[in-house]
Design goal:
The chain has five helices and four strands. The protein has a four-stranded antiparallel beta sheet.
C-alpha cells in the first residue's frame, strides 16, 4: 500500500438496528465470540473501526464503521459466511425476509477529528 492509499479517506457508515426484548446478553455474547471467519470477512471487505452500541431503553443498536470502498463493503452480503451470520442472529433481531438485519442508514451530519 502506498502512502497516498493509506491516507485515502475512509467512508464512515452508521445505521440503527433493533434487538428483540430480553436478548441483549445473547447479542453481546455472540459478538464477543465472533466467528474467526466472520472477522476475516469483515477485514477482507475493508471494515475498520466497527463499533455497535446499545440504547438500553429502546433496544436499538447503533452501528458505526469505516470502510475502504462502498461497493466492496456491500458485496459482503453475498458471502456464505455473512448469510450464515444473519441466520444465526435472526432469532434475536428484527430482520428482513432474507434474514438481513432491518436497519436504517443514518445521514452523516457532523464530524470532528
Amino acid at each position: 500500500m502506498t502512502q497516498q492509499q493509506s491516507q485515502r479517506p475512509k467512508l464512515r457508515l452508521a445505521s440503527v438496528m433493533q434487538l428483540k426484548p430480553s436478548t441483549e446478553q445473547t447479542y453481546k455474547e455472540r459478538h464477543n465470540a465472533l466467528w474467526p471467519e466472520m472477522a476475516t470477512l469483515l477485514k477482507t471487505h475493508g471494515a475498520h473501526q466497527y463499533s455497535i452500541f446499545l440504547h438500553p431503553e429502546t433496544l436499538q443498536l447503533f452501528a458505526y464503521l469505516e470502510v475502504d470502498d462502498a461497493a466492496r463493503w456491500q458485496a459482503i452480503a453475498d458471502s456464505e459466511v455473512c448469510q450464515r451470520w444473519w441466520c444465526y442472529m435472526s432469532d434475536i433481531m428484527l430482520v428482513n425476509d432474507d434474514l438481513s438485519p432491518k436497519h436504517t442508514s443514518l445521514t452523516d451530519m457532523f464530524y470532528f477529528e
